[in-house]
Amino acid sequence: MVAWLAQRMDKTALSQLMRCSWQAVHRIVTRVVLERLDDRRLDGLYRIGVDEISYKRGHRYLTVVADHDTGKVVWVGAGRSAETMQTFYDQLGPRRCARIEAVTMDGGHAYIGATRAKAPKATICFDAFHVIKWANEALDAVFRASAIPTIKAQMQQTRSNAAWRKARYALRSGRHNLKKEHRQLLGLIRAERIEVHKAYLLKEELRDLFQIIEPDEAQAYLTGWIRRAANSTIRPMNTLARKIQNHFDGIVAAVQLGLSNSRSEGINTKIRVIQRRGYGYPNPTSLTAMIYLCCSGMKTSLPTQT
Q1: pLDDT of residue 262
Q2: Of 18, 270, 72, 32, which Cα lies nearest the Cα of 278?
Q3: Is 231 in the same domain as 144?
Q4: Spatial CB neighbours of 249, under 8 Å, sequence gap ≥ 6
Q5: CB crowding 205-221: b at 16 or more within 10 Å, else e
Q6: Residue 55 sits in a domain of what CATH number?
Q7: What pLDDT was estimated at residue 237?
Q8: Domain contains 136
Q9: Tally of structural domains, the chain
Q10: Is residue 302 one of the residues assigned to a domain?
Q11: Same domain for 162 and 225?
């Protein structure tokens, strides 16, 4: 009964309903997870996604591994270091590690090193979401360094960040998602600060790699993009070009295999709901048990159900 309710409501209300302490709910959930978490969930894995999520302020993280094909969490570990990732591969074992064909992740060196050491046959794919995030960060740096007179005047007149937020939204959004007012603002930026507009076009060209470029053309297209960004006079884009070059193989592999960390991002959203529902979790053990209970496909039933 407690496990079934814990999948659907917060622990405080659950403890009041069941007339037990919050700690008793945690112990019951942990016990149910230990009893029902089957090691066979790690069998048959061949495409996995790896991502981290914070559980407490002060850079406290959990590493979450998901199966791309089922969308279920298969492993959770405290931390986001190479040692954390190695612990997962050690639990997987050499035989099952050898079957891993692809691993999607962000550009963190910890996960890369552990994967190359423990699953050398796996193709590392760098998630499109994080690549575009790098591009947006570079674009933000160009935008902040460029004083756009009209926008600055609007900000001083309104004494708010509304104008800045509107310009930032227009620059960061895909060109197909823009309204008429945002297109007009881009026209203003193009007329007054061509460097910002050039950086915007480079960002959009990088977005096209994941949206409209054919997989067999990805390598040549990305090579051309790196050359254009590196030869530009925009310093943040020069830095981005070097970063993309360092992650070249993984980005191309993600396009060619059609893989992204969207599964992991969806799971992170569910974990955030679990955290808000529980008003935060003070330690990784408690949150880990709830993640397994709610995101690993674990089945529970009411005592009245047969």
Answers
A1: 83
A2: 270
A3: yes
A4: 124
A5: bbbebbeebeeeebbeb
A6: 3.30.420.10
A7: 96
A8: yes
A9: 3
A10: no
A11: yes
Q: In what order do the strands lie in the sheet with 73-78?
A: 73-78, 60-67, 47-56, 102-105, 123-126
The letter for the amino acid at 262 is S
Tokens of 302: 């009411």
pLDDT, averaged per 10 consecutive residues of the chain (306 residues), comes to: 92 90 91 92 94 82 94 94 95 95 89 94 92 92 72 47 68 78 80 87 94 94 97 95 96 93 87 84 86 93 81
Identify whether residues 116 and 132 lie together within a single domain. Answer: no
Domain-embedded: residue 178: yes
What is the distance between the alpha carbons of residues 169 and 250, in angstroms, rounded to a whole number? 28
In this structure, what token pair is assigned to residue 235? 């310093």
CA distances from 79 to 57, 64, 87, 111, 207 (A): 13, 10, 11, 11, 31
pLDDT score, position 127: 84
Query: Which residue type, as a one-letter code, is found at position 227?
Result: R
Domain range for 21 is: 2-36
167 and 233 fall within a common domain: yes
Name residue 305's amino acid. Answer: Q
Single-letter residue type at 285: T
Both structure tokens of 177: 């998602």
Residues 161, 288 contacting (CB under 8 angstroms)? no
Are 196 and 222 part of one and the same domain? yes
159: region left, alpha or beta (phi > 0 left; psi from -120 to 50 alpha)? left
CB 15 within 8 A of CB 28: no
User: What are the structure tokens assigned to 122, written together?
Assistant: 């796996």
Which residue reads 């690549």 in tokens? 131
The residue count of the chain comes to: 306
Based on the fold, state whether residues 146 and 250 are members of the same structural domain: yes
- Measured from the Cβ of residue 165, the count of other Cβ atoms closer than 10 Å reads 11
The two structure tokens encoding residue 17: 């309903």
Residue 157: predicted pLDDT: 47
Residue type, 147: A
Q: Bridge partners of 123?
A: 102
